[in-house]
């Protein structure tokens, strides 16, 4: 029963991590710069929203790593 809870938590964390990473704005040096779409002044500073998004992404990544290691130990 507990193993299923960890599996569900891992799937939710994985999907959330993908979603959160896709929400991040580009930092430059990508395809958009090659095509001429520079974000100059917008990308120069981090806003409060971007910093909070970074913190949430790190927290979800830590949950993902924790559940992965826990499942590895439980399923051996």
Describe the structure.
The protein has a domain at 1-21 and 47-76. The protein contains 4 helices and no strands. The protein has helices spanning 2-23, 31-34, 40-44, 48-74. 4% of the residues are buried. The model is unreliable at 29-34 (pLDDT under 50).
Distance between the termini: 16 Å
Number of strands: 0
Q: What Rg do the Cα atoms give? A: 17 Å
- Helices, by number, come to 4
Name the quaternary structure: single chain
Report the structural category: mainly alpha
Unreliable runs: 29-34
SSE string = HHHH
How much of the sequence is in beta strands? under 5%
Overall mean pLDDT stands at 83
**What is the overall silhouette?**
elongated
Q: Classify the helix fraction into a percent range.
A: over 70%
The biggest sheet, with number of strands, parallel, antiparallel or mixed sense and barrel status, is: none
Brief write-up:
The chain has a domain at 1-21 and 47-76. It has four helices and no strands. It has helices spanning 2-23, 31-34, 40-44, 48-74.
Attribute tags:
4 helices, 76 residues, elongated, mainly alpha, 0% strand, 76% helix
Question: How do the helices and strands line up, and which of them pair or pack?
Answer:
Elements: H1 2-23, H2 31-34, H3 40-44, H4 48-74
């Amino acid at each position: 029963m507990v193993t299923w809870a960890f599996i569900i938590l891992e799937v939710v964390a994985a999907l959330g991590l993908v979603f959160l990473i896709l929400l991040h704005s580009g930092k430059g040096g990508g395809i958009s710069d090659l095509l001429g779409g520079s974000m100059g002044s917008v990308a120069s500073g981090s806003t409060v929203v971007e910093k909070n998004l970074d913190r949430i992404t790190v927290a979800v990544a830590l949950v993902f790593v924790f559940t992965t290691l826990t499942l590895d130990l439980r399923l051996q």
